[in-house]
Amino acid sequence: MTSYGLTEASPGTHSNPVYNRRLIKVKTIGLPIHDTKQKNVDIETGQKELGVAEVGELIVQGPQVMQGYWKASEATAEALRDGWLYSRDIGWCDEDGYVTLTDRKKEMIKFKGFSVAPAQIEALLLEHPAVADVAVIAKPDEEAGEVPKAYVVLRPGYEHQSAKELMEWVNSKLANYKNVHEIEFIDAIPRNPSGKILRRILKDQERQKIGE
Question: What is the pTM of this model?
Answer without folding.
Answer: 0.80
